[in-house]
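Morning run. Coffee first, then this:
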Amino acid sequence: MKFISMVADTDQGVGHDLMSYTNEIKAVRVRVPDEDIDIVLVDTPGFDDTYKSDYEILQMISEWIKQV
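And here it is:
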């Protein structure tokens, strides 16, 4: 989320230890400077997550994509 926080110029929260920080999928809309377009940056839990299996992470991402 550090990259998204830097690009969006907002504090989106960043984990600083070995425990997983991101536990849900979060989308952040960002305006491209000097352009008339927005992009959407998506933060997801990573693989080898502290609390979820890789399979659960893939299911979360798959369900999120189906909804958008």
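The chain has two helices and two strands. Good start to the day.
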